[in-house]
Amino acid sequence: MSDFEYAPALESKAIANISKDYGLFINGKFIASHNKKRFETINPANEEVLAKISLADEVDIDKAVKAARAAYVKVWSKMSGKERAKYLFRIARLLQERSREFAVVESLDNGKPIRETRDIDIPLSAAHFFYHAGWADKLEFAGFGDKPKAHGVVAQIIPWNFPLLMLAWKIAPALATGNTVVLKPAETTPLTALLFAEVCQQADLPPGVVNIITGDGSTGAALTKHPDIDKVAFTGSTEVGKLIARSLAVSNTPVTLELGGKGANIVFEDAPLDQAVEGIINGIFFNQGHVCCAGSRLLLQENIHDEFLSKLQKRMSKIRLGDPLDKNTDIGAINSAAQLAKIHELSSSGQAEGADIWSAPCQIPNKGFWFAPTIFTGVTQAHRIAREEIFGPVLSVLTFRTPQEAIEKANNTPFGLSAGVWSDKGSRILWAGNHLKAGVIWANTFNKFDPASPFGGYKESGWGREGGRHGLGAYIKGAK
Ligand code: NAP
Ligand code: MG
Q: For the Aldehyde dehydrogenase domain, which residue ranges apply (predicted)?
């Protein structure tokens, strides 16, 4: 039978009300930035400019921190948990009501498929606000003492791979525990954070409780260095995480860091292979592989290597790459030209170091930033593609003979964020779970998220946890 053709099923852009120009959201209002500097955010699927965004400098940051401080002292720290919860519930409901609009804007600004923004990013963001709304009036029963106290003003910096979801991971627990916030979204994906600012207005959130300042890396650096910040929460690269840790060591400001990863997905010979293929595909190609906990190293038991690879390549050949707003699309655009260059560079190093490359036969659009789903076989542990985070749709395949060897290879990384185990045997899964050094371990599935479940890593994957009761602790003074 010839290939099945899908008719396009485009989501309409009409619902997305993107302004031409955005100010900074400080003290409950959108205001012009001090230096009037602007940068553009584009749609990475076609390189069209979506909006002009303000670049905040130190004067703006100071204004935002002062607004957050005043809101903390005068309003938010005096409000009962029960009252704070009402605002979180309201925000959660508004995110649900406006979910289609948020999904379209996120897909336009980030390049990720509408299927994912619609079914994962936006519903999970709302779920984080619902979950934390439930905690706000029960903090004294959470195991952090009788009178858990907020830090005060929190600086939060997030990356571009899950813009609204990372915002929800940061803002929901901060507000639930009584902190006020200054948040900086990533330079390439500020739009859903600015839309969220509108939601804060709609929810009548007291001015200054949430402030959103846009900018680039220098804005982020200046925010973390502001002297009136009580806590910093950062998600991003290990490189920037280290810079932040170093600069905060002087003031001893509490900090949580959610950084990079190089997750191993281990398939044992007794695994249900067809299900495992689906899990491996989801593990590395979900969100174009722009996922910190991606299963970017596939560890195959040697005797199933050939059979598994042929199943994997067959399945990869069916992946649909293209317009992120098409509901049939599996893989959207790479988020930026810079990220695409990084993927190309690491991928070339894989070839230069002797690994074999295979890419799915996708048609790459003429405009925008794209990379076909790719696997490398014959990868050794010394190869850069086995050690460094690629943060793209590229899978490195290694083999092992014994379960011990699988664990040793999986743990042989400076990171420790996620791992996956595929086996029919419960005892083997539990044994592997006990020996893997990773913050999250999935068994016979991958990339499953829930607000009640703590998330975070070992070693260079970061400090602290987000989500669940553990994540709350990061926003409470002195909590262990
Ligand atoms: P990034 O370059 O570290 O940027 C992250 C954020 O920090 C952005 O808002 C960025 O601003 C800002 N920033 C840049 N330089 C800064 C500085 N010197 N001081 C303070 N802030 C600064 O990371 P990315 O490339 O956007 O994101 C990808 C990385 O995030 C990957 O390594 C991935 O593994 C990690 N990640 C981790 C998790 C987790 O939970 N562990 C989740 C998602 C992503 P600009 O965008 O304006 O440059
Ligand atoms: Mg963009």
A: 31-476
